[in-house]
Each structure stands twice: as C-alpha cells, then as structure tokens.
Amino acid sequence: MSTKLVIVESPAKARTINKYLGNDYEVMASYGHVRDLVAREGAVDPEQGFEMHYTVVERNAKQVDAIAKATRKAEAVYLATDPDREGEAISWHLHELLRERGVLDGKPVHRVVFYEITKGAIQEAIEHPRGLSDDLVNAQQARRALDYLVGFNLSPLLWRKITSGLSAGRVQSPALRMIVEREQEIEAFVPREYWSVEADLQREGHDFVGRLQQLDGGKVEQFTITDGETAETAGRRILAAAGAASDTPLGEPLPESGRGELVVTRVEKKQRRRNPSAPFITSTLQQEASRKLRFSAQQTMRIAQQLYEGVDTGSGTVGLITYMRTDSVNLSQEAIQSLRAVIEKRFGPEKLPKQAHQYRTRAKNAQEAHEGIRPTDAARAPEQLKGYLSDDQYRLYDLIWKRTVACQMIHATIDTVSVDLAAGEVANFRATGSTIRDPGFMAVYQDGGDDRAADGNERILPPLSEGDRIPLLALRPEQHFTEPPPRYSEASLVRALEEYGIGRPSTYAAIISTLQTRNYVTLENRRFQPTDTGRVVARFLTEHFDRYVDYEFTAKLEDRLDAVSRGENDWVPVLEEFWKPFRERVEEKQQVSRSDVMKARELGTDPKSGRPVSARLGRYGPFAQIGTRDDEEKPKFASLRPGQSIETITLEEALALFTLPRDLGTTPDGLPLSVNIGRFGPYVRFGDQFASLKKDDDPYSIDRETALQRVEEKKENIAKRTIQSFDDGALTVMKGRFGPYVTDGRKRARVPKDQDAESLTKAQCQTLVDEAPEPKGRGGTKRKSTSGRKTASKGGGKRSSGS
After folding, report:
1. From CA 505, how far away is CA 488, in angstroms rounded?
2. Is the peptide bond preceding residue 661 cis, with omega within 30 degrees of 0?
3. 3-class state of residue 716 by DSSP
4. What is the spatial distance between Cα 461 and Cα 468, in angstroms, rounded to a whole number?
5. CATH 1.10.460.10 intervals, the chain
6. Neighbours of 138 (CB within 10 A)
7. What pLDDT does 475 receive?
8. CA gyration radius for the chain?
9. What is the largest CA-CA distance in the chain?
10. CATH code, 193-273+415-481
11. Exposure of 711 by Cβ count < 10 A (0-12 exposed, 13-18 middle, 19+ buried)?
12. Nearest to 7 by CA among 85, 84, 93
C-alpha cells in the first residue's frame, strides 16, 4: 500500500508527528541540512550570476538515500521542515535532490508549515499545504552566498597577515568589533570623583533616607560636589541650618539632644501603571534566560528545541512550546482565549483586562503569521510537568509559561510618594517611596531587569504632611567615582545586535559560539573580554575593511536581504552590488605587510641589556620580546601569562616573564631543580625528567617545597605505571592507555599481544625500541636529533617574533 511521505528536520520531531498521523503517512527526518556549498573555491561563481554549486552533506548522505528510496514508493511528499528561511531552504534542497534523482515522477510535492507540534496544528498543516516559497529560498541562498564570499576571501587574508585558523564573517566581525570597542572604552575610561549627601531620617520609629537635591537654591547635579572638602563644608552648613550639633563628625549618629530637624515642604502622591511585557521572541528569550537562569544563548536554544519537538508527559509525546526561532510577538486568538481562561481560573476574573492585550512587533521583517514563543497549551502548568522534565527543561518552560500568562493579565498599579524636606534656607532633600497597590501581572512574572518583587521589598515612606518636622539622625556625605561602561554579557550583546539590526534571531547563538571557538573572546564572570587575537583581527578589519564591519552598513544589508524574502528585491543585484567593491578591497589589501598588521607595542627598555622591550602577537599567541631581529644578539621571547594582554601589560610585568626558568636548587638526591613554562604548560624539571604543575601553581612564585611535592607525585605515578625497569630507568616497560609499551625516553614501542610485558628481557626490550619508528614532531615530520635542535631562548620556546 502506498503512503504519503512527510519529511521533517529532526528524528525527535519525526517520532512525535508520527503519532499524530495515521497509517497512511510515513514520517522521516532529514537531520538538518541535506546540501551545502562544495568546500572549495568557486562554490559561488559571481561571473555566472552567482551560480552556486552544492553537494550532499556527507554525514546525511545515507539518510538522503533512504528518503529517496521512500519517495519512490510514496504517492505524495510533504516537506514539513521548520517555518523559517533555513527550513524553506532545506525543503527546496530536498526537492531538488529528489528531482535530480528522478524519484518524484510527477508526484505532488507539498510544503507544510506549523508553529507548534500538536495534533491539531499538524493536521491543519497537512490539510492546507502550499508550494515552496521562491522568495524565502532566494533570501537564504543570498545570505549563504554572501557568507561564503566573505569567509572564503577574507579568512585566507587573515591567515597570511595574522595567523592560521582565523575567520571573518559578515555578521560575526561587527559583533567582535562591538566587544573590542567596549573594552577600549573601559581601558580609556578615567574615573571622576563626586560626592552625594544623604540624610538619615525617622518618623514614628520608621527610618527613611532623603537625598540632597538643592543647595543654596541651585540644583545639585552629579558633579556639583567633587571633593571631600566641599562636601564637609556643605555638610556643616546643613547641620547648622537644621539646628543640629554641627561639631558632630559627619556620617556619625547625631546625639539625641542635638539632632535638629528637617521640615516637610511638599508631599506629592501619584499612581502609575506598569504594563506586562510582550511574549518572548528569540532574542528576548535568550536575554531573560541569561539573566534569570544563567543559560548561554546556545543552551537556551537547545533546551527550547527539546520543548518544541516534544516531551513524553505520561500520556504520549507532545510539543510543549511553539516554534522558538521567531521575531514576532503576535498571539493567535485561540491562544489568547486559552490564556484568558487560565488566568480567570487561577487568579480570578479581576486579573483579566476587559480587552485582550495586543502586541506590536518591532522587527521590520517579522511575519505576523508567526507567533511569539508560548506554551502550546496554557492549561499545562509548569508544576504539572515537573516530573516529566529535566531541571533545565522545567526552568525554561516555567519562564516561558509565566511570561506568556502575564502578558494577558492586568497592569500593576503602583503608588509613588515624593517628599521634599528643607534644612532652613540652605538645602532641600528629597525622599521617595513606592508601594504596590495591585501587583496585577507582577504576581506571576517580572522582567529580569526589574526584579523588585511584589512582596514587600519596595521602599515605603511613613505618612507625612506639609509642615511636619522630621528628626535628623545623621548626615552622610559619601564619596563616589564614575564607573566605566560594563562589558557585554550574552544578554546585553544579543540586545545590542538586535538594536543595531545586525543578524537575525536564528544567528545570535551561532555568532557568540563562533567568537569563542575562534578564541576571539573569552567569557569571564559571564562577561565578554576580547583576546589579543580578537583585538588584532578587529583592528585589521576596522582599518582595512571598515565598510564591512560598519554597523549601519551591516544592518542595511540585512534589510535588503529581508526585502528579498518579501519578494521586493531580486537577490542577484543585491549580491552584485556587494561583491565588486568587496573584491577590489580584498585585492588591494593583499599588499599590506604582516609587520604593519602585527604592530608591536613598545613598552620601554630592559635596564640590564639596554634593548627595547615590546609586546606583540605571534603565530602561537601573545608574547613579550627583548631586542629585535636586527640586533647582533638574538631576541628573547616569553609568553604572556593568562589574563595578561599586549594592550595593557606594563614594562615591569613583561620583564618579570623573563625570570623563567627559575632555579630552585637541587632535589634531595642531587638533581638540578627548576621551573619553566613549556608547550604544554608550566612544569618543574628535575634532572632530565619533567612534572607538570597543578592549575593553581604559579611558576613565577612556586617555592622549592611545593616543586619537590610535584616531583614526588610524578615519581609515584611513574612507579604505579612501571612494569619493569632496566639500567636505572634508561629502559622501561610501562602501562599505557592502549596497552603496555617499552620506552628509552625518546622512542616508544608497543609490546606485541603475544608477549608478556612482565617477562620481557632487557635484550627483547632493546630490540623492540630499536625497531620502533622515529618519533614524529610538529607537522608529522621526524624529529631532529637533540644535538641538531636549536636551543630555546630563556623564558620561552621558539616563536615568530613578528618584528
């Protein structure tokens, strides 16, 4: 019996959907993309109208064969990949592959889309198919072609001018520039001193605080008081004006007999509303999950994918949330009615607004047919699912459920009070407070940036009226310094990318991941810091490819690509306009010398040798250098320590790097003892043997006792692994990860399976070692003999000087 073939992207989704369709349907997974550009130059040919040459993705080749085989037997094909550009492209590639293999034979091919994996949504999609969207396919192809052309032309330039393994991307590079520029702002920041003056006040046992607002009739701004002397003078005058004991040290409690008082001159009460936030879209979900759950963008999307594709809730697998790659905040009328029913039942009819809230999508290209990220069934509360979800799944579902329910609840009503209090004619203070009259939606959910809970944590003022005289408990001048802008977190970087119009919902996680994978940035205390490699790449691109890392240019290009998806632009002219000036710029910059790109930062002069000291980036990372390659004596090199940067390291810090290797005397049995840093990290050397230092061991400060402890640990480890030893360890039989082996310290020979490692003679061991191949060095070449090896410079191994 022939069947109808439904093709989705993931096997999890296939299993879920298969339960919703009858025996007339077979559901198969494509496992993501089935075709991609061939991995060679010319995969996109600008001379032939940007013709693109594809090949089957190797890891999915067998699955494509299986899909083709199933298609041959099917009466119709339903392409049910994700409802976005990438999903549309996968469906198109599947269609092209099946057509080229001649297995369609005029069979109907339908494109179906659904935004939630529920029985109703699946059946509705199957009953109302459409054709493939050329506009969405062309938009995806244009993006893929641009990414290829940028990467395939710019990345090799980075390899030649900086170091191998680097990459540049159309969207990745402006994101890197953001992080680097923020770090430069922080480094260039000069703190400014300023002072505030606060009054500790009390009314009927209720303490509260007033902040100085006016002094001698003038408004007190941030930098009105900029030093301690001015603050002291102002404080003394205020105490005198308030009738307080002016000889009491400022900041200390005033004696009860000399407190003085401030007079209430104005009381203003207001009531304001706070409205709930819109349902989640991809970017806001990533931001909130980062702030509240401490999830990375990738982690958020991975868990959301699991909730979308389906979880077994005891009565079968069901998709718990709608599609998570969306920039629309729209909700279907069916979803809104379901939410209102849940709100009325759980929180009471008084928590429902008369009219359902409607949210307007800010994104220019958002498709209102899409929805915001919401539960597929609002009645499925988080606590009902807790036993079926992992901890992370539960936490993310709980976040989505609460945000969605809250978006259809009434506003929060907040009473605010502002009180002015005078100290004679000299000064005026202001105290503010707020109470939540009705928490409304805040009883369910608050944004990560507004976590003042509706549980009594608000600032509350006592009842006050004009003319009241309030005791002054203390007057506190406090010193402050302005702070630099904060480094980007994942949440704030996603928000900045979204605000600039750089990238799209499905790309944010990939952008962040690539920056970390390429070692352009590190994540320290959940904040991004650029590495020296990232700084050099950003500087090179900003100086030589300024247009292509320009935020406005990148955003406008995104808009033009969005217009392609709407059918407003043809994709080829968009690429032509980009390609010609870009290619010319790449050709022009081939002439830039590597030394110009890898500019050294001069730190000063080495007092011992009188030679210049510089910090620079080499092929193996950042390092300090004493001397230049033009000197008669060869330069000395030393790798920078973790946390050090060529942009900020001082001369003193750089010179300290050259104290390695450190001589620690001898071991108890008379072997020379020293510490150094090698290719595989810091180590202690005893005689001709080596022992790695532990993570917290600092080679620049480790003492002899700790170094000897590492030596003993190494000896104990060797003893545990040693099966036999000859000539005081010159020839040993050892336990290895893949079985026993014989070594003379340079060569290794595996013990044959038919021989007993414990019974080998010295002669047998020597024969095995003699017959073993020479060990290979870097790049697969045989190592040179020790006598022919160049001696490493003091303080570090051989590296490119870049001078």
Report:
1. 18
2. yes
3. helix
4. 14
5. 141-189+486-594
6. 23
7. 95
8. 35
9. 106
10. 2.70.20.10
11. buried
12. 93
Computed over every residue of the chain, the mean pLDDT equals: 88
211 within 8 A of 196, measured Cβ to Cβ: yes
Which residue is listed with tokens 């008084």?
A: 350
CA atoms of 584 and 579, how far apart (whole Å): 9
Strand partners, 686: 673, 689
As beta bridge partners, residue 682 has: 677
Q: Check 323, 445, 520, 741 and give the catalytic one.
A: 323
Buried b (16+ CB within 10 A) or exposed e, 242-269: bbbebebebeeebeeeebbebebeebee
CATH number of 4-132: 3.40.50.140
Provide CB contacts within 8 A for 549, sequence distance 6+: 173, 174, 176, 177, 538, 541, 542
Q: DSSP secondary structure string, 536-564?
A: HHHHHHHHHSGGGG-HHHHHHHHHHHHHH
> Which pairing describes strands 76-79 and 109-111: parallel, antiparallel, or unpaired?
parallel
Look up the CATH architecture of domain 282-410: Orthogonal Bundle (1.10)
H helices present in 590-683, as ranges? 594-597, 651-656
Straight-line distance from the first to the last Cα atom of the chain, in angstroms, rounded to the nearest whole number: 74
Q: Where in 581-671 does DSSP place strands (E)?
A: 601-605, 612-618, 621-626, 636-639, 662-666
Residue 79 and residue 91 in contact, taking contact as beta carbons nearer than 8 Å: yes
Q: Report the length, in residues, of the chain.
A: 803
| Long-range contacts formed by 337-346: CB under 8 A, 24+ apart | 338/377, 338/378, 338/379, 339/378, 339/404, 339/405, 339/407, 339/408, 340/408, 341/378, 341/379, 342/378, 342/379, 342/381, 342/405, 343/405, 343/408, 343/409, 346/381
Task: Give the separation between CA 394 and CA 321, rounded to whole angstroms.
Answer: 12
Q: Residues 247-276: pLDDT tens digits?
A: 888 989 999 888 899 999 999 999 999 999
Tokens of 335: 């979803």
Contact (Cβ atoms closer than 8 angstroms) between residue 399 and residue 293: yes
What residue spans in the chain does CATH classification 3.40.50.140 cover? 4-132
In the residue annotation, 445 being an active-site residue is answered as no
Domain 141-189+486-594 sits in CATH at 1.10.460.10
Instruction: Answer yes or no: are the C-beta atoms of 559 and 363 closer than 8 Å.
Output: no
Domain with CATH 1.10.290.10 in the chain: 282-410
CA distances from 111 to 24, 114, 510 (A): 18, 10, 27
**188 CA to centre of own chain:** 24
Q: How many CB atoms lie within 10 A of CB 189?
A: 12
Following DSSP, what letter does each residue of 380-426 receive, concatenated? S-HHHHGGGS-HHHHHHHHHHHHHHHHTTSPPEEEEEEEEEEEETTT
Residue 368 reports pLDDT greater than 50: no
Angle at 554 between CA 552 and CA 557, to 5 degrees: 105
pLDDT tens readout for residues 449-484? 554 443 444 688 999 999 999 999 999 999 999 999
Predicted confidence at residue 2, as pLDDT, reads 63
Spatial separation of the C-alpha atoms in residues 771 and 52, rounded to whole Å: 52
Q: Does 785 have pLDDT greater than 60?
A: no
Place of tokens 């205020």: 238
Q: Are 582 and 548 in contact (CB under 8 A)?
A: yes
pTM for this predicted structure? 0.78
**Dihedral Cα 769, 772, 778, 784, nearest 10 deg:** 70
H-type alpha helices, 449-507: 490-500
Residues carrying CATH 2.70.20.10, the chain: 193-273+415-481
pLDDT tens, 606-625?
998 899 999 988 877 888 99
**Contact at 8 Å (CB) between 129 and 78?**
yes
